[in-house]
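Fold it.
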Amino acid sequence: MALLNRPTHQTVRASGVSRETPASWPGLALAAAGALVALSVHWLVPAVPMLTASVVLGIAVAHLPGIRTFVRGTARPGLSLAGRRLMRIGIVLLGLGLGLDQVLRLGWATVAMVVGVVAATFFGTLWLGRRLGLPGDQPLLIATGYSICGASAIGAVSEVSGSDEEDVASSVALVTLCGTLAIAVLPLLQGPLGLSDPAFGRWVGASVHDVGQVVATAQTAGPGALGEAVLVKLMRVALLAPLVAAVAFAVRARRRGVRTASGRRPAPVPLFVAGFLAAAALRATGVLPDAALEWAHTAQEALLAAALFGLGSAVHLPTLARTGGRAAVLGLGAWVVVAGVSYAGVLLTV
């Protein structure tokens, strides 16, 4: 079902290689501008993560009377390109933020806890989404976003599942909304749940979606909680690659014998997933200086911000509202699952 009028941009093929035409540049320029505005919002209001601001801004420009025709027409090819290609590059750079040595120092009990939380959240959300009858790949994408790392994980899985752009956009919007609400809600529960600062940090790292939202939530309990939260969150991010590979394998099995437009069978493991793992391995060697890691982190944030702006611009609120009740139930149910299972896991491992 088409939510937006998306003109098909032309490509030039030579020797089996596809090259985007200049029609993509208006949308790419708009995505870059959106990322800059999101960065400015984060600077002015540090509690608002840059990636969250990017999604919200993308949704906003797609509905502003003065610009929505441009967004849905001339800029659409470039915005869609940003949501695909820039997302892949940003996910590769995300691997450089994985301090695997630090993660493993938390102990195998914590590793097992995180794996259990991810598995329970993913399969529980996927089952509930199917029972609620959400259309397309929304149950798969929402389950991925809640269980791993929010919008970045949704973008990664959508690349191998071939999900419709509007399914991706609506899933990103829901996961971003719930993750943003966690920033305000979870700190209020630390006292009633009897969690120490380090335990609260682990709970936040195991249950909140986006890395920026984890930082914004955990920092309310001090630096000790923040450190624990980031390390546990990195464990969840590390599970992105095997999850994407599993989805790619399932898609490949379902489409066995089907070839791509270039005549080749789809790769069993997507190139950007291999790049993510290679980047994490490179970080673990310790050969990269801090300045290079800092530059890579900045580039990763900028690329993901532009990509999420592009995805946000594909959200069509009237259509989203028609499934809003079911999506809200799924979001609430997934939130209860991830928060409850991670809380039990933290109590067992502290």
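The radius of gyration is 20 Å.
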